[in-house]
Amino acid sequence: MLYKSLVRSTIDYGLFVYAPRESSQILKLERGQYLGIRTALGYRNSTPNNVIIAEVKIVLLLDRARMLAKNFCSKILKYKEKDIKSSLEALRVKENYAVYRNPLIKKSVICTAWEQVSKIRNEFGTPASTFEVWKMDYDTLTNKIKVDLDFGQQLQNCDKKRSRVVSNINGYNKEDLRMINEIKKKYNIQDDLTMIYTDGARPKKLRATGASVVFEDQDESYSISLPRMCSSFTAEAFTINTALELMIQRIRSTSNDIINDIIILTDCQAVLKAVTKNIISVYQNRYILEIKTLHGTLTNIKKRS
């Protein structure tokens, strides 16, 4: 935390713009990162750099610059920033001409990212006129969503070789039934409860990212394959967003707008923490914003009922 707040936050600012092309210059930046990690975490000078990177689980600055550049270029294409788009296109033309004149010249990080992202521009969907966050009202953005991480921590700490004896009730094992009963007791929930299970994953050996939603009171599940560049975080957020959409459709398809208590169980702690953050930023994941919007819709339906 100390390193990320004091060192990396400074290095990240405009990193993909000023990232050097020569290996010797890149090494100087990397040494600055190594020094920051050693100072923040107390590593000895004799500790190899590759060991530090592996233990701290921080990517090299050049790789991070490439990632930030791709994210930036993706947003430019998605949200039709015409002026910046024209500047990037002009930069691409100039650097391609320079490489044509001298093949030894290396392209900048931002130019390379722009070329890579431009090749898959059709996969970004319909361009948006503005960032989604500006279309949302303040109450929806700052509304506090109830998130409980304690039960997930309890399951993580329990024995991995737990009993696999399936109960006669909905196919749960004993540990799952105990957890559900504890949730009901903690939040004073009656039997009128809708349990939804979501999961998203990106297996390394597969070419696509999977996402699925299961309603406890239904005999079928919903699953979909997402694009291969989709991260596990986005897949998990997508499943929660889909679960809320399906729940709203179910409520509106009935004659009355009576809504039961809803619990969504997911194994992605990062998404849950992102949902609870009340940071107004254009760089939030699209599905995180949609989750907040749908949660606000369900809250209003609950109040009316």
Automatic annotation (TrEMBL):
SUPFAM superfamilies, alphabetized: Ribonuclease H-like
Domain of life: Eukaryota
GO MF annotations in UniProt: nucleic acid binding
Record's protein name: Pol-like protein
Organism the protein comes from: Lasius niger
